Amino acid sequence: MSKRVALSGNEAAAHAIRQINPDVIAAFPITPSTPIPQNVSQFIADGRMTTEFVTVESEHSAISACVGASAAGGRVMTATSANGLALMFEILYIASGMRRPIVAPVVARALSGPLNIHGDFSDVYGVRESGWVELFCQDSQEFYDTIIQSVKLAENESVLTPVMPIADGFDISHTVENWYMEDDKAIQEFIGEYHSKYSLLDTEHPVTFGAWAPPDWYYEHRRSQLEGLLNACDAFKAVDKEFGEKFGRSYGVIEKYHSDDADIIVIGMGAVSGTIKDAIDEMRANGISAGFLRVKLFRPFPYKDIIEALKGAKAIGVFDRCITAGAQTAALCTDIRSAMYGKSNIPIVNYTYGLGGRDTTVSHVKTVIEQLKEAAEGKKIDLINYINLRA
Q1: Closest CA to 162 of 105, 81, 207, 223
Q2: Residues of 353-381 as b/e, b for ≥16 C-beta within 10 angstroms?
Q3: For a tag site, which of 121, 131, 222, 265 has the least CB within 10 Å?
Q4: Residue 176's CB: how many other CB atoms inside 10 A?
């Protein structure tokens, strides 16, 4: 039986982890994700979890301990943000390369420098090619639900790949919202017990972990590893459907909001989605054919679903919460443009927003939609634009 609670996104994540009750958590505190392991450690101290909490000296050590515990056959989790995720970078590739089904909620935050502790996607965009599944969440409810779904997804035999549920720093992590917490037993029944097929501790059936791969085999290993990541798209759809049938909430790899009949489509991820939806409602009330496409699954990129969803658009604006560092466009826009290459000649415009916690309002989004309307009518628009940037 679910109950409605008023808690922050970080508390939602901590309660999801409490209900999952993994074998091992290794974590090191960093703003704005610190309350996740902090609350989990309190749950353990209060006897509400049987998880082994490994205190470490850095995030690099945290993810290293997670890889070892997972290789030993455990259900393993961690949590981090920003510079902490960057410090994990080396081991993220090892975790995915060894097909370890680790779940690591990330509270997305700006990277230094200059020093900033507020939300943007610099950290999670920076590790997008590390072989992890990346799932972006709109609010606390979705963060809670996605962490639970991620365990079942990561442990799926066709996937066996680490998963990163992502929430915007402060916009979700520290904002108190009303959301539904499910019954502990129902969550345990949904995720089921984890039985690792191979374990370092199974001396009767020895296997090799972390093997050396010379040039005549490395290529094959990397290509084989990719299968698990690619399978995650269909596997998540199945997990999400099962979750929806059991708990009444599902999300899909993309969410279409008034986009089926829209001439102008805005695309984005994460907490800005609610703001964009409000702007879409206001524009449609004024007779402008606008819609929103929210990308939930960022890696692997669900390009087939996105191409189908955008087939009627006359102009597209892509919101990226990360600055373009020398590329033609930022990551989400680049993926959208790649997916649509050869499918359409419509304008696809990149909008940078929200860096370092900068506000993005309904008014800002409405201005973007007006600009895209002009682009659809043939007006030349700059490829890269900056929302709420002081001149």
Answers
A1: 105
A2: bbbbbbebebebbbbbbebbbebbeeeee
A3: 222
A4: 13
Spatial CA neighbour of 364 closest among 265, 275, 240: 275
What H or E segment, with its residue span, contains residue 21?
none
The encoded tokens of residue 252 equal 């899909």
For 278-343, the DSSP string reads: HHHHHHHHTT--EEEEEE-EEES--HHHHHHHTTT-SEEEEEESS--SSSSS-HHHHHHHHHHTTT
Give 60: exposed, middle or buried? Use CB within 10 Å, 0-12, 13-18, 19+: middle
Beta bridge partners of 6: 178
Closest CA to 228 of 340, 126, 95: 95
Give residue 325's pLDDT: 87
Half-sphere exposure of 191 (CA within 13 A, CB side): 29
Q: Please say whether the beta carbons of 374 and 381 come within 8 A.
A: yes
Containing H/E element for 68? helix 59-71
Long-range contacts of the stretch 48-51 (C-beta < 8 A, 24+): 48/18, 49/18, 49/21, 50/21, 51/17, 51/21, 51/22, 51/23, 51/24, 51/25
Per-residue pLDDT tens over the stretch 114-139: 999 999 999 999 999 999 999 999 99
Please count the residues of the chain: 391
Tokens of 145: 């639900």
* Phi, psi (deg, nearest 5) at residue 26: -125, 125
Mean pLDDT within 68-72: 97
**Residue % of the chain over a pLDDT of 70:** 100
Sign of CA dihedral 377, 359, 269, 94: positive
pTM given for the model: 0.98
Which burial class, exposed, middle or buried, applies to 343 when counting CB atoms under 10 A from its CB (0-12, 13-18, 19+)?
exposed
Integer Cα distance of 5 and 324 in angstroms: 39
- Distance separating alpha carbons of residues 161 and 366, to the nearest angstrom: 39
Estimate the share of the chain in helix, then strand, then coil, as percent rounded to the nearest 5: 40, 20, 40
Paired with 247 in beta bridges are: none
Residue 16's alpha-carbon distances to 80, 99, 145, in angstroms, are 15, 23, 8
